[in-house]
Amino acid sequence: MPEELFREYEQLVAGADAAFQKMEREHGERIRCARHCVDCCHAIFGLFLIESVYLKQLFDELGPNEKAAVLARADKADKALAALEKSLKEQDDPHLQSYALAREKIRCPLLDDQDECVLYLFRPITCRVYGIPTMIGGGAFVCGQAGFEEGQPYPAFDLDAVYRNLHQLSKELLAGTGETDLERADLLVSVSKTLKSSLEELIKL
């Protein structure tokens, strides 16, 4: 796998961590992230291919018992996602679909029975900035547990810019494997599918 692309990804991770730490220094009393606060671990989101392959490589380094437990939870998450997808298809209004998706909670398979992330040090960027204001699709969002006041101006982390970079890195990853359909970089992969697939399957999804 291309180590140079992974280093570029890790620079994006470092930037996200730095933004979170800056927000902690300036507005720490409004950030409610704490150990065993797992609201973000139930949010539904997809991984860009570069994130997916990076996470999968690290997951494969876990011990067999720990991997088996994670994969069992991944099966449950996949079933819940399939049920959600079916219910969303029955809703014609895209705005209501988005609202329903935002409200739905599905437990991340990486979250163990002690409410600890088994790959916490390598968690995706979305997880790292969940507790601070972010800009996504031109709109501002923040964790419902946080103490940021509605209508007040706060600096927001530009997730859209990060997503553009992740998309570009994913295209470069595909190109490096000889894949010609670079539009596949547009597709997002669930955490559960990431963990259950082989690296070769992820590239060919």
Question: What are the salient characteristics of this protein?
Answer:
4% strand; three-stranded mixed sheet; 52% helix; mainly alpha
Q: DSSP strand (E) fraction? A: under 5%
The radius of gyration computed from the alpha-carbon positions, rounded to a whole number of angstroms, is 17 Å
In whole angstroms, the N-to-C terminal distance is 17 Å
Number of strands: 3
Supply the number of structural domains. 1
Name the helix and strand elements from N-terminus to C-terminus, one letter apiece: HHHHHEEEHHH
Largest sheet: 3 strands, mixed
Helix content: 40-55%
Strand order of the largest sheet: 2-1-3
Query: What general outline do the C-alpha atoms trace?
Result: globular
Uncertain segments of ≥5 residues (pLDDT<50)?
none
Tally the helices: what do you get?
A: 8
Derived structural class: mainly alpha
* Mean pLDDT value: 90
The gist of it:
The chain is built from 8 helices and 3 strands; from the N terminus they run αααααβββααα. It is mainly alpha-helical and 205 residues long.
Descriptive report:
- By secondary structure, the chain is mainly alpha-helical.
- It has one domain (3-199).
- Helix content is 52%, strand content 4%.
- It has eight helices and three strands.
- It has helices at 3-27, 49-59, 64-89, 94-103, 125-128, 159-176, 191-196, 199-204, and strands at residues 134-136, 139-141, 157-158.
- Strands 2-1-3 form a three-stranded mixed beta sheet.
- Helix 1 (3-27) runs antiparallel to helix 6 (159-176).
- It is globular and about 45 Å long.
- The two termini are 17 Å apart.
- The mean pLDDT is 90.
